[in-house]
Amino acid sequence: MAVTANYETVMIISMKKGEEGIQAIVEKFKALIEKHATLKNVDEWGKRKLAYLINKESEGYYVLFDFESEAEFPAELDRIYKITEGVMRSMIIKKEVE
């Protein structure tokens, strides 16, 4: 049996994608995580002001995912974040066991 761990990931989506484009990206990553991991929670923080400009944009759409997966999946998820148009920033954190 494979060893799993809990992870948390947040991504910032460009507001230039529009409401439908943003929801399409959220659904894409939700489906990807559900396919390769156990999705525990999706928390859409919505539109927020950025601390500094990213790609000449001052606002972004924030989404947080909590999931449990094998150790290999976060690296693949990070790779897909980087090649997905519209994802301005992302971060994946391994959560400590409580």
Automatic annotation (TrEMBL):
Keyword tags: Ribonucleoprotein, Ribosomal protein, RNA-binding, rRNA-binding
CC per GO annotation: cytoplasm; ribonucleoprotein complex; ribosome
Pfam families: Ribosomal_S6 (PF01250)
Keyword Secreted: no
SUPFAM superfamilies with a match to the protein in the record: Ribosomal protein S6
GO-annotated biological processes: translation
UniProt GO molecular function: small ribosomal subunit rRNA binding; structural constituent of ribosome
Gene3D superfamilies: 3.30.70.60
UniProt keyword rRNA-binding, yes or no: yes
Top-rank taxon: Bacteria
Family classification: Belongs to the bacterial ribosomal protein bS6 family.
Function: Binds together with bS18 to 16S ribosomal RNA.
Name of this chain's protein: Small ribosomal subunit protein bS6
Gene: rpsF
